[in-house]
UniProtKB/TrEMBL annotation:
<protein>
    <submittedName>
        <fullName>Polyketide biosynthesis cytochrome P450 PksS</fullName>
    </submittedName>
</protein>
<dbReference type="InterPro" id="IPR002397">
    <property type="entry name" value="Cyt_P450_B"/>
</dbReference>
<keyword id="KW-0560">Oxidoreductase</keyword>
<feature type="transmembrane region" description="Helical">
    <location>
        <begin position="187"/>
        <end position="205"/>
    </location>
</feature>
<comment type="similarity">
    <text>Belongs to the cytochrome P450 family.</text>
</comment>
<dbReference type="Pfam" id="PF00067">
    <property type="entry name" value="p450"/>
</dbReference>
<keyword id="KW-0479">Metal-binding</keyword>
<keyword id="KW-0472">Membrane</keyword>
<keyword id="KW-0349">Heme</keyword>
<dbReference type="InterPro" id="IPR036396">
    <property type="entry name" value="Cyt_P450_sf"/>
</dbReference>
<dbReference type="InterPro" id="IPR017972">
    <property type="entry name" value="Cyt_P450_CS"/>
</dbReference>
<keyword id="KW-0408">Iron</keyword>
<dbReference type="InterPro" id="IPR001128">
    <property type="entry name" value="Cyt_P450"/>
</dbReference>
<keyword id="KW-0812">Transmembrane</keyword>
<keyword id="KW-1133">Transmembrane helix</keyword>
<keyword id="KW-0503">Monooxygenase</keyword>
Length: 411
């Protein structure tokens, strides 16, 4: 079935953002939308939304946090709120996460987490990230075949965020299982399936917070529990929501960046050869792979706080808006030869990590992990190649992010 379907009451196509066929190649459809329908109707699970595809419009929305707000309560009428997908009361704490808040609440939460999530703490992780990546590659060297995601792209950032937070290593696979439920398409069935996993994670985190209060450690969990600014601290609900967000965003983006980035390099062997010959290009290579592969396909949802016109389309107050980062990063108005992978690209003002007050807090960590991981992979796997035809690869039916289910490779 096509990712673009037609509804009887609508005259324009409706984009299914979690369709696997669409996930495999969203870029051709986004190009069509940028040309013909830059503000389009879409669905995220059962929720109708607007999808905005042109670079300039995406940048405007990301920066305009007065008109395009994150907390739906600051935009929607009570009638609109009643139409939102059902959420059990026990999970309401997750709405306290920083991504779903507007200023001044967002600024307060971000200031608190900055007390713990410092650039110095991130940089101190560099030797450990290098050691983890080397260990993963060395441990699988003799097998000659494997799944790059299960063997490398997933355990690298997951181990890093687990260690950074201070979560016992033996529990890290629990968090990955929980994350998979959360990232599924937000249909009613998937929401129901996710509830037990989310409740289990919330209970686990509350127990960890209690342990860190009574027995502080040199880890991010302790720093978050102790974080204070102007006499203010995280509430219990805010702590749960913050760590939930850090766990999810702290590894999911990097998994997709390393795996999709590797696939892109294998499909563009001249770029892979160039990177091997010129390892100093690794920073620009990672920026280009963020732009080209779209590990985060759309920014998280926003809501129009008033009636607004975007590209001659009226978005009514309270309606949900998604900006397609994947589309903006292929916009020919902003990028020369946007569908060409060029690891030497200099003018690369991509929006892969967002913009504005909600710019990705973990971007420096994701960049560092991808630079280290891809550099080692290209050096230690000189004969790396796909183990199956590219058209047989399966893409996950996920919201917001874009990633492969598996990446079978040989070396």
């Amino acid at each position: 079935m096509s990712s673009l379907s037609r509804e009887t009451k609508l005259t324009q196509p409706v984009l299914n953002l979690t369709d696997r066929q669409f996930k495999a190649d969203p870029f051709s459809i986004y190009a069509q939308l940028r040309r013909d329908n830059p503000v389009a109707k879409a669905k995220l699970g059962s929720m109708p939304t607007w999808i905005v595809t042109r670079y300039d419009d995406v940048v405007e929305i990301l920066k305009n946090d007065r008109v395009f707000v994150k907390n739906y309560k600051n935009a929607q009428s009570l009638e609109q709120q009643r139409k939102r997908p059902w959420m059990p009361e026990s999970l309401r704490a997750l709405e306290s996460n920083m991504l779903d808040q507007d200023n001044p609440d967002h600024l307060r939460l971000r200031s608190l987490v900055h007390k713990a999530f410092t650039p110095q703490r991130m940089e101190e992780m560099r030797p450990r990230i290098q050691a983890i990546a080397e260990s993963l590659l060395i441990s699988t060297q003799q097998r000659r075949r494997g799944d790059l995601i299960a063997d490398f792209a997933l355990p690298l950032p997951l181990t890093v965020i687990v260690e950074l937070l201070g979560i016992p290593t033996e529990d890290r696979q629990k968090f990955h299982r929980w994350a998979k439920y959360v990232l599924n398409s937000p249909t009613m069935l998937n929401i129901m399936l996710a509830i037990p996993a989310i409740m289990a994670q919330m209970k686990y985190l509350k127990q960890l917070f209690a342990k860190r209060r009574s027995n502080p450690q040199d880890d991010l969990l302790t720093a978050l529990v102790q974080a204070e600014a102007d006499g203010d601290r995280f509430s219990e609900a805010e702590l749960v929501a913050m760590v939930f967000l850090l766990m999810l965003a702290g590894h999911e983006t990097t998994v997709n960046l390393i795996s999709s980035g590797t696939l892109a390099l294998l499909q563009h062997p001249e770029q892979l050869t160039l990177l091997r010959r010129s390892p100093e290009l690794i920073k620009s290579a990672v920026e280009e792979l963020v732009r080209f592969t779209a590990p985060v396909e759309t920014a998280t949802e926003r809501y129009a706080a008033e009636d607004v016109m975007i590209a001659d389309t009226k978005i009514a107050k309270g309606e949900m808006v998604l900006v397609a980062l994947a589309s903006a990063n292929r916009d020919q108005r902003q990028f020369t030869n946007p569908d060409q992978l060029d690891i030497t690209r200099e003018k690369n003002r991509h929006v892969g990590f967002g913009l504005g007050i909600h710019y990705c807090l973990g971007a420096p960590l994701a960049r560092m992990e991808a630079q280290i991981g891809l550099q080692l992979l290209t050096n230690l796997r000189p004969n790396l190649r796909l183990a199956v035809p590219a058209e047989q690869l399966r893409w996950r039916s996920t919201a917001v992010v874009r990633g492969l289910a598996a990446l079978p490779v040989e070396w």
